[in-house]
Amino acid sequence: MAHNHRPAPEKSASRKFTFLTIGIVAILALLTAGIIGSKIGSSGSNPASGGAESTQGGQGGQDPQSSQGGSSQQTVDMSRRTPGDPTAIGDVDAPVVMIEYSDYRCPFCALFARDTLPKLVDKYVESGKLRIEWRDFPVFGDQSIKAAVAGRAAAQQDKFWDFNKVVFAAAPERGHPDLPPERLIEFAKQAGVPDIDQFKADMKSDKLRQKVVTDAQEAASLGATGTPTFLINGRPLVGAQPLGNFKKAIEDALATAEAK
User: Fold this and answer.
1) Domains in the chain, ordered, with CATH?
2) Is 151 within 8 Å of 160 (Cβ atoms)?
3) Which site from 52, 89, 99, 245 is most exposed, i.e. has the minimal number of CB atoms within 10 Å?
4) How far apart are CA 25 and CA 252, in angstroms?
């Protein structure tokens, strides 16, 4: 989109942050009545403001807890531990639950899905130490909302994580992918969703849209303003952090759980 005026460099980031924040509020208003509350700081979480980029650079080597307020920070347990939940992987009784608030059009969510998630699954999920629960937080427009509902449609046929992997594998390294309905249907085929006609019908389901609404309301009630945002046994970790930061946060949570 062409612009007639380029903002001064020192004001650009703050303006981008303002625009994205307004956009998130508008999307949540579109999904539901409104948003309230603020429990998780937004520092470093906002891709458009450069925050998530900084998690791979200047912020990437920091202790995830220190960057989010230190060890004294109050935890917020939003885990559901629902048996048979197709949008979760790992033992329902795992000592650590990591919740991911994510958007299919977020390039940093794709980075996490491609580079970090498989390693965490191999090391912690397969051993029964970690459970990962997905939450939809569609912050990049109407296509994000429709993609979230499509993910739920795939979940109806036990293909949620297959669909998730295919969508993020095709995502560009920068920018937000174009995800019209026909492309989402193609992704469903690639993911092995068996009944495509049912998938198409479920893409229009008010019930599945409500599931997306519930997730988005949860994220907003915590004060999350960008993706990806994580809770690891209630402690926030914001942005596409390096693998080592996730390992440290999980190991700390395991140690705390074992000490109880």
Assistant:
1) 12-259 (3.40.30.10)
2) yes
3) 89
4) 34
